[in-house]
Amino acid sequence: MERVKHLVCGAGVTGLSFAGHIESDDYLVLEANDEIGGYCRTVLQDGFVWDYSGHFFHFKNPEIEKELISRMGDQRILEVSKESRIRFGGAEVDFPFQKNIHQLPQSDFVDCLYELYFKDDTGEPANFQEMLYAKFGKGIAERFLIPYNEKLYACDLSRLDVDAMGRFFPYADLEDIIRNMKSADNVSYNATFTYPEGGAIQYVYALKSLVPDERVSLGERLVSIDLQKKVATTDRREIAFEYLVSSTPFDRLLTMTGIEHDPSIYSWNKVLVFNLGFDRKGPEDVHWMYYPSRDLSFYRVGFYDNIFGTDRMSLYVEVGRDKDAVIDAAEVDRMKAEVLRDLGRAGVIDGHELVSWHSVVLDPAYVHITKASMADVEKKRRILASRGVYSLGRYGSWTYCSIEDNILEARALADDLNVALRSKL
Questions:
Q1: 323 FRET partner, CA 20 to 30 A, in 156, 171, 242, 312?
Q2: Distance of CA 255 to the CA centre of its chain
Q3: What is the pTM of this model?
Q4: Helix (H/G/I), strand (E/B), else coil: 322
């Protein structure tokens, strides 16, 4: 049987961040796909640069950003001040919606402001939907926050925890909203971002630069883990480990380890992403456009051409779907036609010719964070850690986080294990 001290399952941002930071040569990275990157892969097609979806890196720690960019060689790095808007009816409103209700038609503005002022916030919200009503009132909640997030999460928002989006939710109180009417301040956690000309995969390549090729096994899928014997079985072999680091979706990891759990606790949704290239430009000076209308199939459209400054419109279009939705080739074709129709209805395309396209299904895309899932993840992660198994990343931790958070979490674990390694020297 093969043996390795650190077995890393997943060659995405989390796995490569750990592998590049551990002070040991005794590790192996397994990756089920035939290439590294996970959801941060990039598609180069017919002169268009598309990611699997809109993965733009928002760094709170500039030293990490500088470190990664320093490993990109002559790759041109674009620094972008985000322009994001919301399509509401026939108008555009700056994001976030709740801070810009003064840009709405007068009747909508009056309703939103009235409901905000007289909102019922006397009780303690029990779920995400109740929190939206309690903090922002019926007008704001029902015009944007509820329909948009229902489309994004493809579920009833009353199922989600109050803090399902954590620090990424753009809160604002009455004073913030009133102040913003006179002096705009729409700064959010991702107000600026950097983007390599070669796509998001360049950040993955930068992380991979510290990991020798011979320590990465592509096209090898983890099948099961024996926690007592500390042996991982793949579709090729058995590997004994001392520590195992996984970014696999947490519910799947529990199944592979045989730890008893209630599968109904773990819910998520898929996202069908269309990357679309057109013959000429469309709307300019916007990077994201949000679409809360239930009459449109997609919830968000991103404009790559307005990042790159290219002369052909290049989009990613995101459609939220239930986790059990069947998305086969026929369904992709059906949805592509619907998306193109809706892009026309929304005014994004007008006589444009589609010259290239690509689609991908993210499954899971957004995990549904509930009180039950948070409690179960915390309990089960302790059990796993007691056997040297660590579950990290957005899906491994079953949480809502940024790509930078994944890097930091993986490096923090590596630091802890490095201390143990040094103590044995």
A1: 171
A2: 23
A3: 0.94
A4: strand
